[in-house]
Amino acid sequence: MPRQRLDLYLPEHDTPNAPALLFLHGGAWVSGSRADYGFVGVTLARRGIVVAIADYRLWPKVAHPGFVEDAALAARWVATRHGGVTVMGHSAGAFLAACIALDPRWGVREQMRGFIGISGPYDFGAHEVTPPAIFAGLERIQAAPVPLEGAPPLLLLHGARDTTVGPYHSEILAERARQAGVPVRHVVWPRLSHIDIMAGFTPAARWLRMGEPAVVDEIAAFLGLAEAADSRLR
């Protein structure tokens, strides 16, 4: 299917055991395309990371859980080829990433090395979504089961000025992870909004003072730790 596709961004130099990352875009489950996020793949590939950026089916072509199933399909493809994968998403994509990384019912959690959520909604009512029919038949939507025992490490990133998805979403998920004994790092940047937090991936971010380049630093550091932890388990 046209929406069940992904693009790969590879490091310039062949790096043995390079960490693999799957990125899922946002767009409120109604819009967005992998083609819009090539800058994420380019920036992270320059850090020695193998990056896959995937599309997934959108409303009204599918409702929940169709897009979650597509995310799981992409994660399984990447993980099979790289011996595991860390999954990352922004906004609605962070919800999808949380579902497949933290909830075993989607069948890929055992292949997950980590989860990175950027400005994601993780626990909300169907009435908060436009249109609510995207989550037809559900009143409350939770990306992750409670408790979270057995989940991979989490990195939760949010902007304090996010009025689209409140920072409390990351705060609540971080606390649930701590209660379950799951490793979690939770970072909030005071001046960033829902969109600003992605500007740090742009090549000119450090020079033009766009967004927060430290977002990329946090992700690279987390991937290194997740890789190290995974290698100790094998």
From TrEMBL:
Coiled coil: none
GO molecular function, one term: hydrolase activity
BD-FAE-like domain residues: 6-102
Keywords of the record: Hydrolase
Record keyword DNA damage present: no
Pfam families named among the record's database cross-references: BD-FAE
Protein name: Acetyl esterase/lipase
